[in-house]
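Thread: "does anyone have the structure for this chain?"

Original post by V.I.:
We have the sequence but no experimental structure in hand. Need at least a predicted one for the grant figures.
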Amino acid sequence: MPNRKKVVLATRNQGKVKEFNRLFADAGWEGISLAEFDGVPEVVEDKDTFEGNALKKAIEISTYLNMPALGDDSGLEVDALEGRPGVYSARFAGEDATDEQNWRKLLNELEEVSTEERTARFRCTLALVIPGEEPIIATGACEGVIAREPKGTNGFGYDPVFYVPSMDKMMAELMPEEKNQISHRARAMQQLLAILK
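Reply from O.Q.:
Generated one for you, tokens below.
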């Protein structure tokens, strides 16, 4: 692709940037991390839905840089916790919590919950804002079960405690190419790319 279209990814999370660029590879787009730009204001994620946050990020960054921007908001919905942590997944254990602090808090809260009732899903909403065009929204989900012990070293976030029955592995045990077939972000991206075509 000599002429890749550039889109700013509304994230400084390098794990997400790598994942997006693997997903973008065939579509003629190249994702650029926010970290490449100086002085871009931090977007406050204060909406109570994934779509609200994704759209807010994409609109603010696209407007500020006058470039196409992709906002994503994703998180974990646990049925036994009535959908929590949801939009608060990244700060479940507190504002500056590490991934491990977040999943440890989750395991503590689920300690008494039976294996059958530990169903959960990762959900992702993508919002693509191209200056002068209507925003495009795409969503994806990946069903799983919250394990009792962490396992695996790939991925980030809750991946070490999220068991994917269809793969018989934890999300953190999957190779990137396996994850990109089944992850919530991959599914949202497939939907987005289908809309773009």
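V.I.: this helps a lot. The first strand starts at residue 5 and ends at 9.
O.Q.: and The CA atoms of residues 61 and 69 lie 6 Å apart.
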